[in-house]
Design brief:
This protein is α+β, with helices and mostly antiparallel strands and 101 residues long. Helices cover 45% and strands 29% of the residues. It has a four-stranded antiparallel beta sheet with strand order 1-2-3-4, with helices on one face. The relative contact order is 0.17.
Length: 101
């Protein structure tokens, strides 16, 4: 059986990454039971907000066992990825952003 429970967030939620972090924790916490996973995903969403503000639009979708992200750069390039629970989300996003520069 596949668990399709998920929540999507368009970034930035508002102008400040700290608010993205707080809001993401609350929104994810209402839908997903694993609090450690919620915290990790919220931090990754805040990192994406901080990294992309003013230069790109980002969207994340958090599932019970994975974290999907999509970044639309101003030059038309779309970066996306799917990180499985247990892998380092922030490290994988950072690696992809670094390779793109």
């Amino acid at each position: 059986m596949v668990n399709t429970e998920s929540i999507s967030l368009a970034l930035p939620i508002d102008g400040r990454p700290e608010n993205t972090l707080r809001l993401a924790k609350v929104m994810l916490g209402l839908s997903i039971k694993d609090k450690k996973w919620v915290k990790e995903c919220a931090h990754a969403a805040a990192l994406l907000h901080r990294t992309t503000v003013g230069v790109a639009k980002a969207k994340v979708t958090v599932y019970t066992t994975s974290f999907a992200y999509e970044i639309h750069l101003q030059n038309g390039t779309i970066l996306s990825g799917l990180v499985q629970k247990g892998d380092d989300i922030i490290q994988q996003i950072h690696q992809q952003l670094t390779e793109t520069k």
